[in-house]
Write a structure and sequence with these properties.
Bound molecules: pyridoxal-5'-phosphate
Helix content: 40-55%
Number of strands: 20
CATH superfamily of the largest domain: Glycogen Phosphorylase B
CATH class of the largest domain: Alpha Beta
Shape: globular
Structural class: alpha/beta
Largest sheet: 10 strands, mixed
CATH topology of the largest domain: Rossmann fold
Number of domains: 3
Number of helices: 29
CATH architecture of the largest domain: 3-Layer(aba) Sandwich
Distance between the termini: 57 Å
Radius of gyration: 25 Å
């Protein structure tokens, strides 16, 4: 007889039910040790893994591998984590304890087994939740459960991207259906002129932080509406406004249904701006006050983060779409159609202007921010017309630069090195510069060896992927040479991003002969690993991707230039942990922040980047490499050509010489000095704990004290 609470299968289930495992490699290690093959087969999904093993099988394997104490220890650590009450948040965010921060986002990137993100915005939101959890800040997330997630990517023989959509199986995910007070599944309803939209709600526990996800795939909805939450960013404007209606208004309704009064509404990008309207409606109804007063009150606790430095990237909806979907709430707010449209118009008088989600958010939030200093400059210029009487520098959009959740992106091997050198408590002290000063004490040889091991791990991963890709394409040559693809002693450049044209993923191919010279150099060659998806409807992005893919298929470059399909959390993790150099060359100033380069720094890689987004704040001449000097040109093509020239020059004159400058043991001390410099002066700044603390101190706490004062 086994004690049910003491049963290993149950304990592993409990671990699997809280996404805390996703940033604790020691827990993942238990699963990989139990059965590495199965772990890969189930796409790194602990629940799916446990569904495939009986309690008896687990007991047996655990006994063979002596895993009992590791499982019990992990289980105890999780419980201590969840129950700990002396957190930073408990000490500093007391006035949020009964009224949490509610963080809205259209996507959340938490782990590869939960594909409800497409890229940077989602990963950032996921990292935000994880750090809020680690810090103990009372916060809950609201998002959408995409039943088919984002697509998975395949390239055909011509290097053209093809998309696959697979249905999520909720039984395999750590999701719990949220119920109402009667124990029945909670159903959220949103009225429109053309019928009622319904959604059920799933809860995902992310450490201490719950994430609530709306799911439109319910019986009460029409067939068409059941697919509303099928895919991220698919479909036309009508589908989009319906998704955003669910997210914003449906999301705010969940709070009402669960009796949660928000202390702060944090809108991560404009997709969720409709939440503001539902909050105003609730307050009008509850307090019986007029629209303008309710609006002012909601603004006091609303915080808005914008991410899009291109005017066309902001959602805008036509008056008829707005009336169809928001006519019902408009009447409850007591507004005429024109008054309502004015909430989302830069110029309220202009009857032809569409309704812009960002305008709605900017006009109704107490604090608004961009995600890097340079992005805030761009945003102030872009939205100056909303505050026409103010000088541009006084447009009320500040910045909080993004950071990454360190424990999610740091390789376990590097973690161990930090643990011995930076002190056991370094993860809870990572926002302090003095913690990272100690990186200087790490022995060059030891740091290099750790890095080389991670690089080898990356190369093995890439070969495994390329083998599968080549088999599918019937590419026998690649299969034959698989063990010669990528060389751990060659300078390895990683370049993974969304293939949007402004990111200019093919910049390094501007002069193919010059690139070929670098790649084929007999003594100091380079090799490049590419990855990234183009949006399914972005034809130009797909063409750009195809150029790179075809280049990588060439016999001449096959061993040194590769394309890994289906860039996701998992591919990203391997890349940022194993490359020597991370290449980022967007068209300045269109990278809002960029965070992948921050993940690289933690693991000992160096950035080679245009001075845009975070790198514009981070680069100091010794902690990586800059492409150009931060110049811009009105003509895209001129800027492209110039930046390509700068890129080759920096590679030829700086990156390659420093990398191959070795001592007699083959150790590149000057390179390692840069690795250390980067960790020392960037690690404490560009992490998500620092970012979330900034939000808490500068935005959340003032907003929350305003709400408590207002209701006294
Ligand atoms: C970190 C990350 C991103 C965002 O990185 P950028 O620097 O904005 O390109 C996108 N996708 C994945 C999978 C990531 O891990």
């Amino acid at each position: 007889m086994t004690d049910p609470d003491n049963n290993l299968h149950n304990r592993l289930r409990a671990l699997a039910q809280n996404l805390w495992w996703a940033w604790h490699p020691e827990v993942i290690g238990i699963f990989t040790d139990l059965d590495p093959h199965l772990w890969r087969q189930v796409d790194h999904n602990p629940n799916a893994f446990l569904n495939r093993m009986t309690p008896e099988q687990i007991e047996e394997r655990a006994a063979d591998l002596v895993l009992h104490s590791r499982i019990n220890y992990a289980f105890r650590r999780l419980n201590e984590y969840v129950e700990k009450n002396k957190t930073w948040g408990a000490i500093h965010c007391g006035n949020l304890s009964n009224r949490p921060v509610v963080y809205f986002s259209a996507e959340f990137g938490l782990h590869e087994s939960l594909p409800i993100y497409s890229g940077g915005l989602g990963i950032l939101a996921g990292d935000h939740l994880k750090s809020a959890s680690d810090l103990g800040i009372p916060l809950l997330g609201i998002g959408l459960l995409y039943n088919q997630g984002y697509f998975s990517q395949r390239l055909n023989k011509d290097g053209w991207q093809e998309e696959d959509y697979v249905n999520l199986d909720v039984k395999k995910l750590p999701l719990q259906m949220v119920t109402n007070s009667k124990g029945k599944p909670l159903v959220i309803q949103v009225d429109t002129r053309s019928g009622v939209l319904q959604a059920r709600v799933w809860k995902l526990q992310v450490g201490r932080v719950p994430l609530l996800l709306l799911d439109a795939n319910v019986e009460g909805n029409s067939t068409e509406d059941r697919e509303l939450t099928s895919r991220l960013y698919g479909g036309d404007n009508r589908l989009r406004i319906r998704q955003e209606l669910l997210l914003g208004i449906g999301g705010a309704r969940i709070l009402q249904a669960l009796n949660i009064t928000p202390g702060v509404l944090h809108l991560n990008e404009g997709h969720s701006s409709f939440a503001i309207l539902e909050e105003i409606r609730r307050i009008i109804e509850y307090d019986q006050i007029p629209f303008h007063r309710a609006r002012r009150r909601v603004s006091l606790y609303t915080v808005f983060t914008t991410h899009t430095p291109v005017a066309a990237g902001h959602d805008r909806f036509s008056p008829d779409l707005v009336e169809e979907h928001l006519g019902v709430i408009r009447e409850k707010l007591g507004l005429s159609h024109d008054e309502f449209m004015a909430l989302g118009r830069v110029n309220p008088e202009d009857g032809s202007e569409p309704f812009c989600m960002t305008v709605l958010a900017l006009k109704n939030s107490r604090r608004a921010n961009g995600v890097s200093a340079i992005h805030a400059d761009v945003s102030r210029l872009m939205w100056h017309s909303l505050w026409p009487t103010r000088p541009e520098v006084e447009v009320p959009i500040g910045h909080i630069t993004n950071g990454v959740h360190v424990l999610s992106w740091l390789a376990p091997q590097m973690f161990q090195l930090f643990e011995t050198r930076l002190g056991q408590d370094w993860p809870t002290r990572m926002v302090h510069p003095d913690v990272w000063e100690k990186v200087a004490e790490i022995d060059d040889g030891e740091l290099w060896e750790t890095h080389q091991n991670l690089k080898m791990r990356l190369i093995r991963f890439v070969r495994r992927r390329l083998q599968i890709q080549a088999e599918r394409r019937g590419d026998r040559e690649t299969i034959k040479q698989i063990d010669q693809i990528l060389d751990p002693d060659v300078l390895t450049i990683g370049c993974a991003r969304r293939f949007a044209t402004y990111k200019r993923g093919d910049l390094i191919m501007f002069h193919p002969e010059r690139l070929a010279r670098l790649v084929e150099d007999a003594h100091r060659p380079i090799q490049i690993i590419f990855a990234g998806k183009a949006h399914p409807q972005d034809h130009e992005g797909k063409q750009l991707l195809q150029r790179i893919a075809q280049y990588s298929f060439n016999a001449a470059s096959r061993k040194r230039i590769v394309f890994v399909e289906n860039y996701d959390y998992n591919v990203g993790r391997h890349l940022v942990q194993g490359v020597d150099v991370w290449l980022n060359n967007p068209r300045r100033p269109l990278e809002a922040c960029g965070t992948s380069g921050q993940k690289v720094v933690l693991n000992g890689g160096l950035n080679l980047s245009v001075l845009d987004g975070w790198w514009n704040e981070a680069y100091d001449g010794e902690n990586g490499f800059a492409i150009g000097h931060g110049g811009m040109h009105n003509d895209e093509n001129v800027q492209y050509q110039r930046d390509a020239e700068y890129l080759y020059e920096t590679l030829e004159k700086e990156v390659i010489p420093v990398y191959y400058d070795r001592d007699t043991n083959g150790i590149p001390h000057n390179w390692i000095a840069r690795m250390k410099k980067a960790m020392q002066n960037l690690g404490w700044r560009f992490n998500a704990d620092r970012m979330v603390k900034d939000y808490a101190e500068r935005f959340y706490l003032p907003a929350a004290s305003a709400t408590s004062a207002e209701t006294l």
